[in-house]
Design a protein that fits this description.
single chain; mainly alpha
């Protein structure tokens, strides 16, 4: 691949719609929120969810209001997550019960994704897959509400996990889900960009729910309804241990600036493994090996 090929790929119309526009929308939304003072700063993490909602309409060419509920669950969960998250963040609600409240609300929301598969499945592998999905959803919500080491950790993990879901969706021929997951990752990166190397906006419930719920919705639909590889998607859970995977790397005085890069690299290795598993199980050639 030449430099010209890379340049053409970066300005490909599909990539502009699925990646660059969501990133720009989210970054702009976070900046606008910040202009409203301290309360706006508390709501800045909603920018990622706003970027995804706008990208959703562009990617699927769906500007109808309201969109059919059953066909656009990731969109409605993003809107619901943004609404609940913004209320919690702007009013600083929850106190010491804030974290379990967010987790319980998130789990209740993703039941909407799992309910059809749970009701239609029989005891055995199909039912186990649904239960495994709900356990994984709880795990993601618990991890992303726990700021460990750096406030940049949760949004970074959500960004890379969305890329992983997109990669697995591609192997399942779920093109729409792949584009939406890529757009979600790009929108989250728009928020991440404001917080490196200095954290400016603390990630709040609007990020956990506004990004986490559509991420879980897309991953759940790929696993439960699009024949996405459940083992590959399960491996992506390691992304939410990124700070543990890199905690023993001695970065010295550069840790604050380079720590997120180390976490991102560890997460990308996880994505590589998940993609390899998904492609191998689907009988597709592995990258670099033909």
């Amino acid at each position: 691949m030449t430099f010209a090929d890379v340049g053409n790929w970066l300005v490909d119309p599909d990539l502009i719609v699925a990646f660059w526009l969501p990133l720009a929308f989210a970054a702009l939304a976070a900046l606008i929120a910040r202009l409203f003072g301290s309360r706006g700063a508390a709501l800045a993490s909603a920018g990622a969810g706003v970027g995804f909602v706008l990208a959703y309409a562009i990617i699927l060419h769906n500007w109808g209001v309201p969109a059919p509920l059953a066909e656009h669950k990731p969109l409605y969960l993003a809107l619901l997550g943004l609404l609940i998250g913004c209320v919690l963040d702007s009013e600083n609600l929850g106190g010491r019960f804030r974290r379990p409240l967010i987790v319980l609300l998130g789990l209740f929301a993703v039941l909407w994704i799992a309910a059809p598969a749970l009701l239609d499945s029989r005891a055995g592998p199909e039912r186990n897959l649904v239960i495994g999905y709900l356990i994984a959803a709880a795990f993601v919500l618990v991890r992303t509400t726990h700021v460990a080491g750096s406030a940049l950790t949760p949004p970074l993990q959500l960004f890379v996990a969305a890329l992983g879901v997109a990669a697995v969706a591609v192997t399942a021929d779920a093109e729409a889900h792949a584009k939406l997951a890529l757009g979600l990752g790009a929108a989250t990166l728009g928020f991440v960009a404001w917080n490196w190397p200095t954290v400016r906006f603390i990630p709040g419930a609007a990020l956990t729910l506004g990004v986490g719920l559509p991420l879980l919705a897309l991953g759940g639909e790929v696993a439960l309804y699009e024949d996405g590889n459940p083992w590959a998607l399960g491996l992506l859970l390691l992304v939410f241990f990124s700070e543990w995977l890199t905690s023993r790397i001695g970065l010295g005085n550069k840790g604050k600036a380079m720590g997120p890069w180390a976490q991102a690299f560890a997460c990308l290795l996880v994505i590589g493994g998940a993609t390899a598993i998904a492609r191998w199980q689907a009988g597709l050639p592995l990258p670099l090996f033909g």
